[in-house]
Amino acid sequence: MGMTFAEKILAKYAHEKKVVPGQIVTIKPDHLLMHDNAAPIVSKIQPELKEYGIYKRDLPIIVLDHVIPAAAEKNALQHKQIREFVKTHKVKYFFDVGYGVCHQIVVEKGLALPGTVLLGSDSHTCSYGAVGAFSSGIDRTEAAALLLTGETWLKVPQSIRITLKGTLQRAVTAKDVILSIIGKVSASGADYCSVEFHGDISQFSVDERFTIANMGVEMGAKNAFFPVDAVTAKYLTLIGISKSNYTPVNPDADATYEKELTFDLSKIPPVVAVPHGVDKVKPVKEVEGLEIQQCLLGTCTNGRLSDFRIAAKILKGKSVHPNVRLLILPASRQVYLDGLQEGLMNIFLQAGGIILPPGCGPCLGAHQGVLAPGERCLSTSNRNFKGRMGCVEAEIYLASPATVAASALTGKITDPRKGVQK
Amino acid sequence: MKVWKYGENINTDMLFPGKYTYTCSTAEEIKPHLLEDLDSSFAKNVHEGDLIFAGKNFGCGSSREQPVLGLKAVGIAAVVAGSFARIFYRSSINQGLLLIECPEAVAAYTQGDTVAFNVENGTITVGATTFSFPKLPKEILAIRDAGGLLPYTREKLKKRKK
Fold first, then answer.
1. Which residues of chain A from 300 to 359 reach within 8 Å of chain B, CB to CB?
2. Which CATH architecture has domain A5-263?
3. Are the folds of A5-263 and A274-418 the same?
4. Disulfide-capable partner of A97 in A66, A68, A92, A297 (CB 3.0 to 4.6 Å)?
């Protein structure tokens, strides 16, 4: 009997021939991701760090992204403490304020490779399945322990196999695909599970796979995974990583899955997740006309070049509705630069958009675009929980870059199929 | 002992608002904001030994250990839920907050019922009915018995040094 991706890679890292769901294994991940929370993480283990040091200087990846540039003295102090920690312990992979959102940086800098394992003190660590890595979120305390010992336990998860069939309609994107899947599976439908995407996936670029894998946690998944194929290899070559640098792990054809689901891509319309749950998914048509005051285009879910291209096509030569603030949040400095080079940022600015520094920005409600009571935001981010953007009496709707761009122009939630040519 | 009863998909933003995540990290800073956007009476009225009953997928959302630290600090004896989101589940093991996964017990509970549980036997009694819940594997019990993940890690490091 064959093994799923999660079984195969965890067996490899546990040095076992075979593992089964439910089994507890001890593994040493290739990398441990931290962001602004590195400050509270290292503050937990000051005496131990002094006595033992960190496990390996190339284990941690630290990216300052959550509240950047610092919104208050407390944030600034944490950033400073992190820089000191990085210096003292010679942390190899440190990306200071301005590089971008941690998940984008991990993939863009080639730190997540096919067949590797990464753990991170952030729930969207599951994103790296886009390039065939096993990656999962942990908490701060576990990150602290990992910094010292380099190892932790994992329970081998059950696996869910999702087959994507057919091709997407015009103006329907990867975001609509993952929102539709979550709407069907529910916010808890993949709890503790490894979710694999198969079928007609060659139509999805790594950017689009990233959008899908990023939201795996919104259905409770431990990790999300795309098999490594020519699309993955092409992307990795582009960022300077040749095939000799990695060994893909792909699931066996005769692996056993807890659940198998098939989605017909041609039947997916543009959708939104309505307040206050990511699994409250409806076709855009059903909420069309709802007035919005803020649009957020970007984040680690949809802040890459391909997302901006879709939005720019819609916004080119037009003006954002006077009642709407359009916030543009590039996932990284590289995306920002590429967007400038292609003239996309000009289009956004000319349309009346506000470009934010590459980071998490308003997504978690700490600063830069906090909502007022009674306001409604249409966002390409990954969570619409109550209070998420800093105000408990505001509403967040999640949608694709196409839907957000089309709606920014009208000031109301709008079906993007009306304007856009794919 | 009071039972605080909530629904399904209680996410980390409801348990502890995201806007405070980079300004509050100690128990004293966390306590006043616990469940702020879910139940504004909780932080003021919670007492040591109280229980939380909730539906499935408790703790979904972010990697956020403030609610775990906070619930432990105010003395929540256990969170009983239909199921838990995995990062919250791991975090609770790491901090020594007791989680009981038992959808039957949650369904059986009505206001005023007495609740008692026995971790060693893996049983919880609601009113007159006793239900069983899955016990933790031995690898995880070792972390709990050490007093949480950091004390467990300290022991491990000391042994390695020898």
1. none
2. 2-Layer Sandwich (3.30)
3. yes
4. A68
Count other C-beta atoms under 10 Å from residue A372's C-beta.
Answer: 11
Q: Quote the strand ranges of B40-94, DSSP E.
A: 51-54, 78-81
**Quick check: A366 and B91 CB within 8 A?**
no
Distance CA A141, CA A122 (A): 12
| Whole-prediction pTM | 0.96
Q: How far is A107 from chain B (nearest CA, A)?
A: 20
Structural domains for chain B: 3-134 (3.20.19.10)
Which of B14, B63, B154 lies at the smallest CB-CB distance from A121?
A: B63
Mean pLDDT of B74-99: 97
Q: Which amino acid, B69?
A: L
- The 10s digit of each residue's pLDDT in A39-90 is 999 999 999 999 999 999 999 999 999 999 999 999 999 999 999 999 999 9
Residue pLDDT, tens place only, A155-197: 999 999 999 999 999 999 999 999 999 999 999 999 999 999 9
Q: How far is A314 from chain B (nearest CA, A)?
A: 32
Sort out which chain A residues have CB atoms less than 8 A from B142's CB and list them: none
How far is Cα A250 from Cα A201, in angstroms, rounded to an integer? Answer: 14
Burial class (CB in 10 A: 0-12, 13-18, 19+), A407: buried
Q: Which residues of A284-387 form beta strands (DSSP E)?
A: 294-298, 325-329, 354-355, 376-379
Interior CA angle at B95 toward B35 and B86, to 5°?
Answer: 70
Q: Does B17 sit within 8 Å of A365, measured CB to CB?
A: yes
Q: Which fold has domain A274-418?
A: Aconitase; domain 3 (3.30.499)
* Chain A 379-398, residues with CB within 8 Å of chain B CB atoms: 383, 385-388, 390, 392
Q: Could you give the ipTM of this predicted complex?
A: 0.94
Nearest Cα residue in chain B from A157? B86
Pairing of strands A31-34, A117-120: parallel
**Looking at this protein, which amino acid is placed at residue B73?**
A
d(CA A4, CA A251): 5
* Domain residue extents for chain A: 5-263, 274-418
Structural contact between residues A256 and A158, judged by C-beta atoms closer than 8 angstroms: no
